[in-house]
Amino acid sequence: MIENWQKDLSSFFDELSEVQHELAVVLVEKRQRLIDVDAEVLQIVEARENQLLARLQQCSEHRQELLAAAKHRGLPAESLQSALAALPQDDQRQALQSQLADAAMRCLQLRHTSITNWVLAQRSFIHISHLLKIIATGDHRSPTYDKEEAGAVRGGLLDSDA
């Protein structure tokens, strides 16, 4: 009975690994499209990203099912790690723990890539906002320094005659 759960868990990790790998590729492609400002291809990439996010949601639901099955079999069900820790020490458990560690590492890498893309998108948005403001208002700000006033301004801390 536990062996079936271990096989289900192994197939879950295989599916999760596939989705994580595909998502990593898509996120790198998305970053490149953001850099290139290629809106048409970016829409296609985002559609693919949304499909992969839906698959990740399915993986999350499958994980919950695996935890429920673990609880039904008398294993701890707080996390997959706790359920694995309760299994007898053997090669199968070691392989599953390795798959779990790999999935956790890929998750961190995906978070990092997602945050990088978010920062890039935000900075691009700010840049475009500034450009639009300049176009709309003509940006008639006074310069920071005028040639005539440059010599007239003195630092009060350093100049005793100021």
Describe this entry's structure for a reader:
Helices cover 75% and strands 0% of the residues. The chain has one domain (2-137): Methane Monooxygenase Hydroxylase, Chain G, domain 1. It is built from four helices and no strands. The longest helix has 47 residues, at 91-137. The protein has helices at 2-36, 39-72, 80-85, 91-137. The model has no long low-confidence stretch (mean pLDDT 87).
Please give a handful of descriptors for the protein shown.
Methane Monooxygenase Hydroxylase, Chain G, domain 1, 4 helices, elongated, 75% helix, single chain, 162 residues, mainly alpha
Draw up the topology in text:
Layout: H1 2-36, H2 39-72, H3 80-85, H4 91-137
Structural class: mainly alpha
Say what the CATH topology is: Methane Monooxygenase Hydroxylase, Chain G, domain 1
Which outline best applies? elongated
Output the helix-strand order: HHHH
Mean residue pLDDT: 87
Poorly predicted runs are none
In summary, what is this structure?
The protein is mainly α.
